[in-house]
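Private note to self, pasted from the team thread so I don't lose it. Backbone tokens:
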């Protein structure tokens, strides 16, 4: 008999929430769940600009001290979709500030998609503060990855949804879609911003699963949700996430190679194709790479969810052992 597929734990209510002002403009929403005396773990959501959801608490056994927060400009953090003072290194500083404010010495870092990028960036700067890494859907913010998804690559797999995505951009500007989208996402015209944000975010939602879920696409009819994701993502990507080289995170592996690292990757992930996870694993052979054979990118696809819960449980047992 095959073992049962793991699903999320019952969603715990936070035992504490915090409003943490990190600049004159930005205030972060932070929540703590589980056991305040348990091993600490921080959850880094995707996007950038995606925000946390109560369902994300279910990745963690109640014995964890789980910390979740909305990154700058999204979710319950304010102001929504704000691009000023919003860079990768600002977020890395925020993670470290949260750790200090909560009195945590070291923690496990859990992140998927953009959260994997941010987890690696944080671990490269603060390896002494990281107990272990649990990563999903690896995104290294390399120009080749961005070109594949936003310019040409994904269109061969999802031509129908791609045509909807580019429909908001005049044909004359489609040779550089990121620049064309950024111009409109930062426009003074609210209608232009919103129409462009919906096109961008709904394309990502449509391509995120092995089997398309139209309900997840329609979630981005909601203006704040669409604007936060599209504006912040495009802002980060046109700036190459403020990484100084194209292969920056791979180059940083020696700094964090001593850390336990589990990578869960969908074989048919079109948003963050498996090559990035493979390249990371080759540079970091001590890492554990788990390839889910029947999954795309989305975190709640059954195989990905199963292996993430298994990974968090194994890590908890090791830390408590």
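Design output:
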């Amino acid at each position: 008999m095959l073992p049962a597929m793991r699903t999320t734990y019952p969603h715990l209510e936070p035992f504490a929430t915090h409003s943490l002002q990190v600049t004159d403009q930005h205030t972060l929403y932070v929540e703590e769940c589980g056991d305040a005396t348990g091993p600490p773990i921080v959850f880094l959501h995707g996007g950038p600009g995606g925000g946390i959801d109560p369902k994300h608490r279910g990745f963690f056994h109640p014995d964890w001290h789980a910390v979740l927060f909305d990154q700058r400009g999204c979710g319950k953090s304010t102001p929504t979709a704000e691009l000023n003072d919003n860079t990768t290194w600002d977020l890395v500083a925020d993670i470290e500030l949260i750790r200090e404010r909560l009195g945590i010495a070291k923690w496990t870092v859990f992140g998927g998609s953009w959260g994997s990028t941010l987890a690696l960036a944080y671990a490269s700067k603060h390896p002494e503060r990281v107990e272990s890494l649990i990563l999903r859907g690896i995104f290294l913010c390399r120009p080749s990855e961005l070109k594949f998804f936003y310019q040409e690559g994904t269109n061969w797999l999802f031509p129908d949804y791609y045509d909807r995505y580019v429909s908001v951009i005049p044909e004359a500007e489609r040779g550089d879609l990121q620049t064309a989208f950024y111009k409109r996402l930062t426009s003074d015209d609210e209608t232009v911003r919103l129409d462009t944000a919906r096109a961008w975010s709904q394309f990502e939602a449509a391509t995120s699963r092995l089997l398309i879920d139209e309900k997840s696409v329609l979630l981005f009819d909601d203006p704040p949700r669409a604007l936060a994701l599209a504006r912040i993502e495009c802002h980060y990507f046109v700036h190459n996430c403020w990484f100084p080289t194209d292969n920056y995170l791979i180059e940083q592996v020696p700094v964090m190679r001593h850390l336990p690292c589990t990578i869960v990757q969908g074989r048919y992930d079109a948003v963050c194709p498996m090559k990035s996870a493979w390249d990371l694993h080759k540079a970091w052979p001590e890492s554990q790479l788990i390839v889910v054979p029947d999954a795309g990118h989305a975190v709640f696809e059954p195989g990905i969810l199963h292996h993430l819960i298994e990974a968090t449980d194994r890590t908890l047992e090791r830390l408590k052992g």
